[in-house]
Amino acid sequence: AKAKGRNTFHFYSQELDAAANERLYIENELRQAIKSKQFSLYYQPQVDCKTLKIVGYEALIRWKHPDKGMIPPTKFIPIAEATGLIVELGAWVLEEACMFSMRLQRQGRSGNMSINLSARQFKDAHLIAEISDVLERTQMPPSLLHVELTESMLMGDVEAAIAQLHQMKDLGIGLSIDDFGTGYSSLSYLKRFPVDSLKVDRSFVKDIPDDSNDMEITAAIIAMAQKLKLQVVAEGVETKEQVAFLKRNNCFIVQGYYYSPPLPEHEIEIFRSQLQDKAGI
Ligand code: C2E
Ligand code: CA
Ligand code: CA
Ligand code: CA
């Protein structure tokens, strides 16, 4: 048994080594990637399922590594966050997304632009100045920019978070709670956060219509959002049954593979015209 225990330990430590090595590798490569422009933004349309119009986009970062190919954000964002590199990367995302949004505006396309903020960026003292600079530089109407935050980012020092949210609101931008229902914010806090919308997490949507608990939870989140006068966006919507369920429950803004995966900029216009064909416009 002892020998086995040792082997097991050996096995685990090798696994840990591999994980630690991968982290280190990604950390080193991230620094290089920022310099050599290996990142791009994809945009996932948010569609009004009643009118089949695009009402917004979520900007999602992509990293194409010269040797490793696509490295998913779930792998590198936490490392960028831990090392602080996210501040630089996040600034790039913000500017890039605003510039694309303005290109859309100039083509006469409506729709707001959502970006994801990391905890580190949210706590950064320069965030407000940075957003206000970008809005100024790009001439983007502030109301078109929406920032997505998670409940866990808001729950540590709640008073500081509320103050920061108010400063962001004062810039005129929209605020949205991402992955709603997966964190541990309570309803009493939700009322105090000056946010405009909630995104129902994919984990609740994915098993609709097979899981009746998930259907109850989703319906309850939507009903609550309406009571609090918050917009609600459903994420991770993949099937027409899910769209039908959401519609029946008064959630009309839908994001997910059912309509479109995140797309590179040059595919957005193609998607828009296909959607218009479907809507019979
Ligand atoms: P998120 O903010 O919850 O983004 C939604 C994720 O769900 C995206 O994954 C998107 O591609 C994926 N998705 C969209 N529709 C569907 C669907 O119908 N089915 C399924 N299975 N998935 C769907 P992605 O792009 O891999 O991003 C993962 C996470 O990485 C994001 O989750 C977000 O937390 C983070 N992230 C991505 N881009 C950025 C960024 O620019 N900055 C920061 N701070 N975080 C980012
Ligand atoms: Ca998001
Ligand atoms: Ca989300
Ligand atoms: Ca998520």
UniProtKB/TrEMBL annotation:
Q: Could you tell me which residue ranges the EAL domain spans?
A: 23-276
Question: Origin, by domain of life?
Answer: Bacteria
User: What name does this protein carry?
Assistant: Diguanylate phosphodiesterase
Q: Which organism is it from?
A: Pseudoalteromonas aurantia 208
Q: What is the lineage of its organism?
A: Bacteria, Pseudomonadati, Pseudomonadota, Gammaproteobacteria, Alteromonadales
Shown chain mapped onto the complete sequence: 694 to 974 of 974
